[in-house]
Amino acid sequence: YRSRKPLDEYLKDHGVVGIMGLSTRALVKHIREKGAMRGAISSVNTDSARLIEMARASRDMNGADLAREVTCDEPYHWVEGVDRQWYVEPAGESRQVGQPGNRSTPQPHIVAFDFGIKRNILRLLASRGCRITVVPATMTADEVLAMQPDGVFLSNGPGDPAACTYAIETTRRLIGQTPIFGICLGHQILGLALGGRTYKMKFGHRGGNQPVLANGHVEISSHNHGFAVHADSLPPGVEITHVNLNDGCVEGLRVPSLNAFSVQYHPEASPGPHDASYLFDQFMDAVRSRAQGS
Q1: Catalytic site residue 74?
Q2: Which of 164, 184, 205, 249 is catalytic?
Q3: In the chain, fewer beta carbons within 10 Å around the N or the C end?
């Protein structure tokens, strides 16, 4: 309802390729049976043999370190909160969303790793009274700890999590030093840092209506991932907190003794349901508890 121009015009203005004039139902059925795969789109030469070769020659996601390609170049501060005109959290929330927090009280300092971070994650953290420093994916643990964070956030992002060896090692060194919250790729990196393994899914999770079992009830959640954490690879002490009801894959984990937790899906929505926005409050509770204890 906030659109200002037709989709076709919008895509052209931003140089984004779109498709039309074909059976998208047939395409979806093919992917449903064969699994996620590479593809090619062309408006110049539609020779099928040429396009198939283009698809085969394109980069495979296995082993692709894309976080390094999309991350920010240097650290920066984020202050924008949520626009309450279009973001409404679940009924019963007493906290005022969209407020930057009481500036007269100390603001928890959150260091957020940018593996391809969504802005609404930063907005939701800022709206909970945080002072946020966004850092490149390659930032070391020593550099982060020198910033004296009250909490560390591991963001979403593209590519194969196992290829982000630098981020896995950094996270491994940060675990136990400060509360950690990971989303999507950040969830996978946390799982790897804890000693688990990840795998490429035959059918990735996409869209805003994935059912996830959490805390004895079902959340409808937003997903966009093609890798997941092997449940059987997680060591003792790591709890699986969220499970996908469609295929049983791991959607969330936590280590209470180390003050670390993560989810595979997108609780920040934008777009998507707001069922899981409580996770940001859970993170803030851990951050403030640690700050008070220290």
Answers
A1: no
A2: 184
A3: N
**Segment holding 240, helix H or strand E:** strand 239-244
Residue type present at position 173: R
Residue 111 near residue 144 (C-beta atoms within 8 A): yes
Query: Under a CB-based contact definition with an 8 Å cutoff, are residues 163 and 136 in contact?
Result: no
Confirm whether 266 is a catalytic residue. yes
Q: What is the rounded CA–CA span in Å between residue 91 and residue 17?
A: 39
Contacts of 92 (CB under 8 A, 6+ apart): none
User: Which strands make up the sheet holding 250-255, listed edge to edge?
Assistant: 76-78, 131-136, 109-114, 151-154, 180-183, 260-263, 250-255, 239-244, 198-214, 217-229
CA dist 124 and 219 (Å) reads 19
pLDDT tens digits, 86-140: 444 454 343 333 444 445 567 999 999 999 999 999 999 999 999 999 999 999 9
Q: Is 274 a catalytic residue?
A: no
pTM equals 0.85
